[in-house]
Amino acid sequence: MNQTQRLHCSRYVLSSSGILEDLMSDNLRFVVERWTPDGAKRQDVLAACSTVEFAEAVFETAIKSRTREICTISMGARLIRRSTPA
After folding, report:
1. Under a CB-based contact definition with an 8 Å cutoff, are residues 74 and 80 in contact?
2. Could you state, in order of their start, the residue ranges of all structural domains in the chain?
3. What does the H/E/C string look like for 6-54?
4. Using an 8 Å Cβ cutoff, are 36 and 43 in contact?
5. Residue 33: CA atoms inside 13 Å, Cβ hemisphere, count?
6. In this structure, are residues 50 and 33 in contact, taking their beta carbons and an 8 Å threshold?
7. Rounded to an integer, what distance in angstroms lies between the CA atom of residue 59 and that of residue 47?
8. Is pLDDT at 3 greater than 50 in this prediction?
9. C-alpha 81: how far from its chain's center?
10. ∠65-40-32 over CA atoms, to 5°?
11. Residue 82 Cα distances to 9, 12, 31, 37, angstroms
12. Are the beta carbons of 31 and 47 closer than 8 angstroms?
């Protein structure tokens, strides 16, 4: 399976089966996400983390490699950090 197929599968599984909610209940409270260019819709969950430090590391790596995309760190409904596309 190539990377595109994995991302598509992850996006489908997370959005359709409630896995994101399960991750939140398993003490993986911090979520790093990639958004559409207009910021209106989540495209992918890049990571679900138990510590904000790990989420920050994933976020920093994501914004370095995805300079034209919007990435966020959130904890439930609380937005912790949002990137600004270059």
Report:
1. yes
2. 3-82
3. HHHHHHHHHHHHCHHHHHHHCCCCEEEEEECCCCCCEEEEEEEECCHHH
4. yes
5. 25
6. no
7. 9
8. no
9. 11
10. 40
11. 25, 23, 12, 13
12. yes
Q: Tell me, what DSSP letter sits at residue 76?
A: T
Structure tokens at 58: 């994933």
CA distance 45 to 58: 11
How far apart (Å, rounded) are the C-alpha atoms in residues 1 and 54? 27
**For residue range 43-56, what is the model confidence (pLDDT) as tens digits?**
999 999 989 999 99
Residue 80 main-chain phi, psi, to 5 deg:
-95, -45
Residue 30 · residue 53 · CB < 8 Å = no
DSSP 68: T
pTM of the model: 0.69
Q: What is the pLDDT of residues 27-43, one digit of tens each?
A: 889 999 999 988 899 99
